[in-house]
Amino acid sequence: MAKAAANAYFVEEEFELAVQKYTEALKEFPTDADALSKRSGAYLKLNQLQSALHDASAALEVDPNLRMAHYRQGVALFGVERFREALKSFLKGKELAGNQENVLSRFKTLKRSLDLDDDTNTLETPTAHDCNSPARDAIVSSTHVTVSVFQKHLKPGDVVVHFDTHQCLVKFTIDGTQVTALDLSLFGAIDPVESSFRVSTVKVEIKMNKADGGPWDQLERAAVASVPSSS
């Protein structure tokens, strides 16, 4: 029961309550790898990176093939700027994802955002070109949409986020050059005034309030192809 309640709180972005309920569940079943991994995910959303890393690593000790635990371990390592270790986690998760393209793409984009050369394992300073397609992650609940955009070495003054009713536009300034990092055409309407964002050294977390609270089938609206005129 506690785990089911925790899962529900997680979906509704009540992450502190989710942590409490996962903790209750883990007192009864301390080796539940899925609960450890999901509590790690809740800690990530609360920006409690060390706790997130601890839980993801504990989950992998129980089940080394738990794909989402590798992902969450990688995100936590990314957040504490242990980039080479993060790459290893993402590569392992990518391997476990197999041919599941929707899962595989998550690992591919996060791996790309590390800017690490696979052969030399050299950490590079990001350029403006690197920031044109940063990795991102998103959660859509009944009331909010939360999008995390990952990029190394961010400063608050280098990030601009613009909200419109059906758009979220994110720009980074890297080496004096401003680039569009993210331009979302949103599936539903948001309330721009009630939407917000926060910047850490490795990501921008964007929280958008839904205007109507209705269900979204996806994050973005499908592009509408133009129809040539018959005249």
- Assign a percent range to the helix content: 25-40%
SS-based class? alpha+beta
The low-pLDDT segments are 116-131
Task: From the alpha carbons, calculate the radius of gyration and give it in angstroms.
Answer: 19 Å
CATH class membership of the largest domain: Mainly Alpha
How far apart the termini lie comes to: 64 Å
Counting DSSP E segments of at least 2 residues, the number of strands comes to 7
Mean pLDDT: 82
Name given to the CATH homologous superfamily of the largest domain: Tetratricopeptide repeat domain
Question: What is the oligomeric state here?
Answer: single chain
Question: Count of helices?
Answer: 7
Number of domains: 2
CATH topology of the largest domain: Serine Threonine Protein Phosphatase 5, Tetratricopeptide repeat
Structure description:
Keywords: TPR repeat. InterPro entries: CS_dom (IPR007052), HSP20-like_chaperone (IPR008978), Sgt1-like (IPR044563), TPR-like_helical_dom_sf (IPR011990), TPR_rpt (IPR019734). It comes from Aphanomyces astaci (Crayfish plague agent). TPR repeats lie at residues 33-66. This is CS domain-containing protein. The structure is a single chain. This protein has 231 residues and is α+β, with helices and mostly antiparallel strands. It has two domains: 1-114, Tetratricopeptide repeat domain (Serine Threonine Protein Phosphatase 5, Tetratricopeptide repeat, Alpha Horseshoe); 136-210, Immunoglobulin-like. The protein is 40% helix and 23% strand. It has seven helices and seven strands, in the order H-H-H-H-H-H-H-E-E-E-E-E-E-E. The chain has helices at residues 2-11, 15-28, 33-45, 49-62, 67-79, 83-97, 101-113; strands at residues 135-140, 144-150, 159-164, 167-174, 177-185, 190-199, 203-210. The strands form two sheets. Strands 1-2-7-6 form a four-stranded antiparallel beta sheet. The chain has a three-stranded antiparallel beta sheet with strand order 3-4-5, with no helix packed on it. A hairpin with a 3-residue loop joins strand 1 and strand 2. The radius of gyration is 19 Å and the shape is globular. Residues 116-131 have low confidence and may be disordered.
